[in-house]
Design goal:
Layout (H helix, E strand, L loop, with lengths): L6 H4 L13 E5 L5 E7 L5 H4 L3 H8 L3 E4 L5 H10 L13 H15 L3 H5 L3 H8 L10 H11 L3 E4 L3 H9 L3 H14 L3 H14 L2 H12 L4 H27 L4 E6 L9 H7 L3 E4 L2
Parallel strand pairs: 2-5, 3-4, 3-5
Antiparallel strand pairs: 1-2, 1-6
Helix pairs in contact: 7-10, 11-12
Length: 283
């Protein structure tokens, strides 16, 4: 699960400078060792789960799949615990009108009763509101994990849950409330937004992704944008690269992380090239 992704902001805040459209890349070193890099979307849209033949072939040639986190039962249980207050409640930190809006949306669209909503921490409420109500729970990263495990690959994590949670907890209280307000305001537009996002991802249409990004970032507090870019992307990119390098030096690794981690001056494409790897777009 891509825990650190508040989707309406995080999936769309794309910097496209100097990067071609591909989301799946061949990564080789000067000795010909073969690895791959895949950008993903945290969605259960069936179009994203119909993995192209090139990706299946790469998995067949690999030994390991590296995700941001391994979505196993232990991690998911710890995440659920972290998302909830122990002693206080969401109604104590939100103004009454906003709290009522959150309760209404999460009840009507997500089937969460008021007692469950009340226990959510602000960042957890924002994260829940910012993704479509789950239907199957089989998100792209989870489906990849299942597919790789079934093929006998080792599935490894490039981050820890605590690191991803620290990114969320590190936002100021007001920034977390701003995310909730934004998610509430944009909730009715979510189906259209996600349709455009998935379609642009499948088409590799970075111009459309950038247009979506600019629209979603309008009016978002500068602190939130800065925290996301500096901590949520750049800092995490360097951490993930450092942990991937020993595996890349062996070959046979597929890295599959959120598509935003690929792009930009401190994205994984650029960082891998600076480490001497040759990258070639596949699709």
């Amino acid at each position: 699960m891509h825990v650190a992704r508040i989707v309406l902001i995080a999936l769309l805040a794309v910097s496209t400078s100097g990067v071609s459209a591909q989301v799946f890349w061949s990564v080789t070193d000067d000795e010909g060792r073969q690895n791959w890099l895949l950008g993903t979307v945290h969605s259960e849209d069936p179009r994203l789960l119909d993995f192209p033949g090139e990706l299946i072939e790469a998995l067949q040639q690999s030994d390991r799949l590296a995700l941001e986190l391994v979505p196993d039962a232990t991690m998911l249980e710890r995440l659920q615990q972290a998302m909830h207050f122990e002693d206080s409640g969401l109604d104590e930190v939100l103004e009454a009108e906003l709290y009522d809006q959150v309760v209404r949306i999460l009840d009507e669209s997500y089937g969460m009763g008021e007692p469950a909503v009340r226990r959510l921490r602000p960042w957890a409420a924002a994260m829940t509101l910012s993704v479509p109500p789950p239907q199957t729970g089989l998100f792209m990263d989870l489906a990849l994990s299942f597919r790789a495990g079934g093929m006998g690959l080792d599935v490894i994590a490039l981050e820890t849950l605590d690191e991803q949670l620290e990114f969320l907890k590190g936002m100021s209280h007001e920034a977390q409330l701003e995310l909730i307000r934004t998610a509430v305001e944009e909730h009715e537009n979510m189906p259209e937004t996600f349709e455009r996002l998935v379609s642009a991802y499948l088409a590799g249409d970075l111009d459309e992704l950038e247009a979506l990004s600019q629209h979603q970032l309008e009016g978002v507090d500068e602190e939130v944008v800065r925290h996301f870019n500096e901590i949520g992307l750049n800092q995490r990119n360097h951490v993930m690269l450092g942990r991937a390098l020993p595996h890349l030096e062996q070959g046979g690794l597929v890295i599959a992380v959120g598509a935003l981690h690929l792009v930009g001056d401190e994205g994984l494409i650029r960082l891998l090239e600076e480490e001497g790897f040759e990258l070639e777009g596949i699709y």
